[in-house]
Amino acid sequence: MTGYREVSVGLRPASRSLGELTQADIARFAGAGGDFNPLHLDPAVAAAAGFDRPIAMGQLTAGLLAAWLTDWCGVENLRSYQVRFTAPLMVGEAVELSGTVVAIEPLDDDCALATMDLVATADGRTVVTGQAGFVAAS
Fold this sequence. Notes:
The protein is α+β, with helices and mostly antiparallel strands. It has helices at residues 23-33, 38-41, 43-48, 58-73; strands spanning 16-18, 78-85, 95-106, 111-122, 125-137.
């Protein structure tokens, strides 16, 4: 049972709030992932697309949500992860990462597969939703 979290349906691990996203954060992520779309980097291009400032890559927000989850459950226990992008995260916004355990299926005497609904919000808007499966204590 080593390394497995004790969980129950309805469990909500402590959320994580990350301070205002900076243009430098986006530029670093662009360099790491190779996504140099000017919508993320150039205020004039973002304005022409209808945004008042550059927006983060969806994968940046998905990565922040995955990091929050795996810091809590352990990356070695993650079995599935999927997300849906619902709204842009913009430069200057803070993001809140959270989730709720919605199901637990026994695997054997020592462990179970837990399913968690995930959400990232900014300024009261949901920017990413998702679901993950991870091994937990039974």
